[in-house]
Amino acid sequence: MLQSKTFPIGGLFHDLAGRLSYHPPAAPQAAQAKELCLGGSSVRLMEFPEAVRFIMDRATHLGTPPLGVCSANLDHIRHFGTGSRWAGTMAGPAVEWLTLIDGAPLAVEAERLTGKPWPRLAGSDLVGPLLDEAERRGLRVGFLGGSGQAQQLIRQRFAADRPGLAIAGWWAPDRSEISDPEASRRLAGEIAASDADLLVVGLGKPRQELWITEYGHLTGAKVLLAFGAVVDFLAGRITRAPAWVAGHGFEWAWRLMLEPRRLAHRYLVDGPEAYLHLRRDSGLSAASGMTRAVGQPAHAPLQAPGTFASAEDQADIAVVVVTYNNADDIGPLIESLRAETATQTLKVVVADNSPNGDTMAALADHPDVIAKSTGGNLGYAGGINVGLRAAGPAGAFLILNPDLRVERGAVAALRRRMAASGAGAVVPVLLDDDGSVYPSLRREPSILRALGDAAMGSRLPGRPGWLSEMDFDAESYKYAHAVEWATGAALLIDARVAEAVGEWDEQFFLYSEETDFCRRVRELGFPIWFEPSARMWHERGGSGSSAQLSALMSVNRVRYAEKHLGRGRSGAFRLAVLGSEIARLGKPGHREAAVALLSRRRWASLPHAGAYPEPGPVVRPVGSVVIPAHNEAAVIGRTLDSLREVLAWGTVEVIVACNGCSDGTEAIAAAYDGVRVIEVEAASKVAALNAADEAAQLWPRLYLDADIEVTAGALSAVFSALTEGSLLAGRPAYRYDTTGATFLVRAYYRARTRIPGNSEGLWGAGAYALSEAGHARLGTFPPLSGDDYYVDRLFTAEEKAVLDTEPVVVRTPRSPSALMAVLRRTSRGNAQQDAVSGDASASRTLRQLVESVRGPLTAFDALVYAAFAGAGRRRALRPGTPALAWERDNSSR
Fold first, then answer.
1. Distance CA 715, CA 731 (A)
2. pLDDT, position 21
3. What are the beta bridge partners of residue 486?
4. Alpha-carbon distance 521 to 753, whole Å?
5. Looking at the whole model, is its pTM more than 0.85?
6. In 583-664, which residue ranges form alpha helices assigned H by DSSP?
7. Which of 100, 258, 600, 748 is deepest in the core (most CB within 10 A)?
8. Could you tell me which residues come within 8 angstroms of residue 470 by beta carbon, excluding any fewer than 6 positions away?
9. Contact at 8 Å (CB) between 204 and 228?
C-alpha cells in the first residue's frame, strides 16, 4: 500500500498506470472479491489496483445505478454498524455502495477471518490514482464539500499539477443547506447540470454517506466518492502520517496529535465501543443492511378524491384514531387526511373512549368515517385494538393521535419508505406548533439508560446513546434510518406485520404500549424506520396531564421492564426509575410517581381501563348558580365556559352579580347566552350575594366564586342531592391545580389535602350549595368575610355533605407571597367569626397535620404547611390591620 508524508497532487501516482492495466469491458462486472460483515457493516475485500479499476469502470459506464464509494474504519462502524443510528440506511436501491477497508483494526479483523492480509484502501490513498485515471479518460470531476478557502487551494494546485483534468464544478454548501431536503435537491440539480461523471464528496462521516444515499442519484454522477477529509488533503492543509506510522496501525494517533480538539472524542470515547462491535459482530457473510422485506399489496381501487373507503372495501391504508374528549381536534385531522386520498385509498376508523357524546357528535359531520364508541375508557392500547378490529382489509394501518395534522404527502412518504426498506413499521417526524422538531425517537429501555436519564434528564443531550433513552441529536431527525421505537402519536404498520404481532398489550393503558409493540415487531425480524419527509404537526398533551398520569408513566416503564427484562434486571430498572423521580420531587407529579414506585399496592388506584355505566334517562336538574364578581375580567370567561353545557339545559339560571366592577367583567358575562348580569354599586361580596339572592327564583342554589370551574356533572349531582334527599347544604369535590406553582406552594397544598378537616367542610372549594330550607336558616349573608366558613357552621354533620362528584378546579396561588395574601385574608375572616362563637379547629387541624406524617416527604410538607399557616395567621391578626381588608391572589389569574 502506498504511503507518503505529504500528498503531492500530480505525477506521484502515474507509476500505477501499468498496474491498473485498464481494458474497458462491455459493462462493468461485479468484482469477484470476498465480502465480509465487519462490525455489522458490509465491506468488500479488494486489492488496490482492482479497486481503482472497478471504480473507474463504473465512472465510464452508462445505465447503471450510481456507485457510492466509502472507506470503513471504526468511525464508520460507529455510525453504520450493528446497533448504530444509521444501520441499514446505505442499503437503498437508488445508490449501490462499495465499502472498502480503511482502519487498521478492520484490516486485522479481515485477516483473522480470511487468513489473508488485505490492504487498507483509504480515500486519501485512492483519490490520486482515480483523478489520474479521470484525467486520462477525459472524465469530468466535481468537488462537493470543504470550505471555499480549501477549494481555492486545490484549484491553485490543480492548475500546476493537473492542468488537463476536466473540472465540472465546485460546491461548498454549509451544514444547514446539506440538511435541508429542498436545498439538497436544488444542489443536486446544479451538480446534474454540470455533467459531472465523478463527484468527490467531502462532507464528513456520516453526513456524506447519508447525503449520497438520499440525493446522489439526482446529481447525475456515475460515481460519488465519500472521502471525508480528502479535500483538506488535496489542499495540502493536512499532512499524511509517515509510512512507518501508518504501517504499524497508528495513523489515528498521528491525526489525533494534529487535530486533538476535533478527533479526541471520536478516537478516545467512541472508538472503544466501535471496536467492541467489530470483534463481536463480524463474520464471513456480508450484512444486508436490513432484515426481512415486507411486500406491498396491490393498489386498491381509487375512491373519489376527498372521500374515505368503507370498512368492507380493501384500502391502501386504514387510519386508526383513538379519541378521548377530542371533539375540537378530530375535524382538522380528518380534513388533513382527506387531502391524502388523491393518490391512494384511505379509510378512517375512530375509536372513541370519551365519557360523553361530544366527539361522536362531531364525527356526525363526517359520515364516511367509521366511528366506534368503545363503551368505556379502554386506554390507548384498548382503543387501538377496537379500531383495528373494525378497520377491515387494508395494506397497512396508520395509528394517529387525534391532535395531529397530517402534512400533504406524508402518508405516501411513509409508504414509500416501508416499501424501500422492508420495514414492519415507519414513523414520521413530528413538529410542534412553532415548527420545531419534537424529539420523538427513542432507544430500547435499559438500566444504564434509565440511570443516565435519572442523573441528567434532558441536560447534556449529546451524551452517548447508552446513557439516554431519548434521542436528542438534531441530526437524527434529518435523515431516514432504522430506530428502535418512537412515541406512539403516529405509526404506520404493515398489515401482515400487525397480524403477526397481534393485539396491543392493554395492561399499559397509557404509556409504554408503543414501546412494547415496537419491540415485538423487531423480535419478528422487521425493522422500524424513521422517515423525515413525512411531516405531521403535533399539539401534544391530548390525554391531559395530572399527578396520577405522571405516576402511571413511571409505573408502566417498570411494567415493561418486568415483561421483557426478567426479575433481577427489572428490579434494578425500577430502582433507577425511582431515583429519577426522587431527584425531581420538586416538580409536579414526581412525588406521586415516587410513592407509586415504592408501594405496588397503589398501582391499582392509577388510571386503568373501565367500562362506562349504562346511561339512564336524562333528567335536567333545576336550580340557580350565583357568581359574585368584583373585577374578574381575567377569569370570569373561564368559569362561564365551564358552565356552557349547563346553560344549554335551560333549567338552570346563572346570575353574575358584578359588585363595584370597573374592568369590563359585566360585558364579558353578558356575552354568554343565558347568563343574567346584575350590577351592585358597592365593591362588596356580601352585597353581591344578597342582591343575587333577591333576583334568583330557583332552588337549590350553588354559590360559585368567579375563578372556579365546575362541570355539568358535578352541578347536576349537587342539585340532585339537595333536591331528592334530606341534606340542607353540600358542595362538590375539588382538586387543586398547582400548575406553575413554586416548590413550597405545592408542598403546602399537598399537606393541606392530607388533613381530613380541610376536606370535610363546605369551605375551601369556592363552591357550595343550599337547598331552600337550608337558605331559610341562613336568611341573608351577614357583613363578614369568609361566607363559606360562616355557612358551614350553620349546619350539623348530618345536614351537610361533601359529595362524590367530578371535582371543581381550584387554581392555587403560584408564589409564596400570593399564598400568604390568601392565608392572611382567610385567617382574618375566620378569626372575626371565631371571636363571636369560639372555635377549636386550630388544635384539631394541628393534630391531623401531625397524624398525616408518614415519612420524610410528608414530614417536610407538614412543616411547610405549618410555617405558612402560622405566618399567615400572625400577619392577619397584627394590630392595625383593617378588619375588612381584601387581599386577592392575582398570580393564578
1. 9
2. 35
3. 441
4. 45
5. no
6. 590-598, 636-641, 644-649
7. 748
8. 439, 441, 442, 443, 453, 458
9. yes
